[in-house]
Amino acid sequence: MRYTSLKDFVTKQKAALAKGPIAIVLVEDDVEVDTTLRHHLQLGFGHVLALMPAVFDLPRDLQETVHRIDFDLSVEGATEAAVNTIINAAPGQWIYYCYNAEFLFYPFCETRAITEMLAFHTEERRDSMLTYIIDLYTDDLDAAPDAVSLERAHLDRSGYYALARPDMLNEGHPKERQLDFYGGLRWRYEEHVPSARRKIDRISIFRAIPGLKLHEDHTFSDEEYNTYACKWHHNLTATICSFRTAKALKTNPGSRYEIDTFKWHNSAPFEWHSRQLLDLGLMEPGQWF
């Protein structure tokens, strides 16, 4: 079903917002929109919301299975406005958000639905989950000038690191169980990426509670939501495998002609399977086996 605005959706679909988990796909351009939506439907989300420009089309099967909402993501603060609106409208529900050409992978996602994973995470008394944004890119920019190719997707198998996250309200001392993570294309081409956008961590999966707010840097107003694990042991983490940075680097005039290839000695073909991401240490199964 199609809605003319986010307000229109929230008004008409109170029943949908009362049953999660809810996936929000924020559509910035027309690249791999259909693939992104189908991927998240297959993971088992209760409802998938496609927030996208009114001029874009959707195939008939997706028109019947996703909530298509007319939305302009080019407006400043659009991501936070959209996510915070859904938070307010769906208290108590698990929510996930990403952009088009981004694909969620969590441990054992090939055989276990997102509802199973979130049930376990809930039992561990966690209301949020850290996700790492793992950059994908083609190995042949001549064949795919926008850097997007599902068949020839590659990722960096190393080059990731973390730094303590300073607490500016506490003389810059490190925040408890919070780190800033870096790596991928944003690290290799950092001269083309503003410093505020170089992190690859995002709290993409969380439970909505009254008063919770998403900030511009993908952190939340509740500091516990921004932690990577609880106090007593490691928790599940997930990855979002994303062409978004590669697309931006090949679209931006300042970097487009500076990059002939994204491949380097630490590139590896992406296998589209959670086992590869686990083997590379790019996500953590915690106590879930």
Describe the structure.
With 289 residues, the chain is α/β, with parallel strands linked by helices. It has ten helices and 14 strands. The chain has two domains: 1-100, Rossmann fold, CATH 3.40.50; 102-202 and 209-289, no CATH class. The protein is 25% helix and 25% strand. The strands form three sheets. It has a nine-stranded mixed beta sheet. Strands 8-9-14 form a three-stranded antiparallel beta sheet, with no helix packed on it. A two-stranded antiparallel ribbon has the order 10-11. A hairpin with a 5-residue loop joins β10 (161-167) and β11 (173-182). The longest helix is centred in the first third of the chain and has 12 residues, at 78-89. The radius of gyration is 18 Å and the shape is globular. The mean pLDDT is 94.
Question: Could you outline the blueprint of secondary structure elements for this entry?
Answer:
Blueprint: E1 2-3, H1 6-12, H2 14-17, E2 22-26, H3 33-42, E3 47-52, H4 60-65, E4 67-70, H5 78-89, E5 94-99, E6 102-105, H6 114-123, E7 128-135, E8 137-138, E9 153-156, E10 161-167, E11 173-182, H7 184-188, E12 201-207, E13 238-242, H8 244-251, H9 253-256, E14 267-269, H10 274-279
Parallel strand pairs: 1-4, 2-3, 2-5, 3-4, 7-13
Antiparallel strand pairs: 5-12, 6-13, 7-12, 8-9, 9-14, 10-11
